[in-house]
Design a protein that fits this description.
globular, single chain, mainly beta
Amino acid sequence: VQLVESGGGLVQAGGSLRLSCAASGYTFSNTPMGWYRQAPGKQRELVATITPLGRTTNYREAVKGRFTISRDNAKNTIYLQMNSLKPEDTAVYYCNKVPVFDYWGQGTQVTVSS
């Protein structure tokens, strides 16, 4: 299994970022996927999920209406479009399946300045 996240960066509050996660080593198209995040000093939390064909998505309350999860099964990739970013969105963002593998990628840092 390999999960490679990218697209993070430093952005001002109100800005946008699009994260990508390239997956390999398992049958991606049959697998529910999710984006997770871990802020400094806090536990990792689930941000958004998407079913194998992308028909159903779910979001934690704090990001509803601002974040959109999507996937491209032809590219074994999931995305997280993040709009109207807030300082409290600052975290390392990871992708993984739902439920998670034991393995985690390196994540991608998102920093939102106020």
